[in-house]
Amino acid sequence: MSTGGHDQSSSSGFHRRAFLKGSGAAAAATALVAQPVMGAESDQETPIVGPGMHKLVLSVNGQDCPVEIEPRTTLMEVLRYQLNLSGCKPVSNQGVTGGSTVWVDGKTVSASTTLAITCAGKKIRTVESLGGDQPDAVVQAFVHHDGMQCGFCTPGFVVAVRAFLDKHPNATEADIRAGLNGNLCRCGTYANVIQAALEVVKGGGNG
Ligand code: FES
Known about the structure:
The protein is of the alpha+beta class.
């Protein structure tokens, strides 16, 4: 049948409306197939927790610390506000300054962008582990070289320097500058921080 003088069938005999109906059904079928597969994978790999409070034990600086948190709680919030480990600084909630740098299972991470719940069963280490009666060589070098002004970025820098020199004990100044480029200091104490790190390299205080 002709509609308004325009035949909707193509010369090949393929009907445009039939094509649109067919392609729409195909797209819907694709979506229906794709979604359950993704859901099945996440169901297997990600246990559902919350939205209420959740109890877990975090291993922090060698101690088991029972905490009760909402699943959305960051590691920084737990360290500072539940465990009173205030060396971890809330400079940014996007992890762009390095102010909340801590170790989790030996790797440096931003505690501001790490959910505490993902750290269960892992070993967390903070800047406080470098203090005590015999402070780590990096801490002492920061004191010698006055590697701080307001001090807000300093704990993150101390962790970053310690972690970098653990992996690169013979680092050059250029290495150190590159290795610390994830940490920002708004007071601009970079020169003194670099000198502190170089003192540790020269003094053999690594490891
Ligand atoms: S010493 Fe103030 S931000 Fe670094």
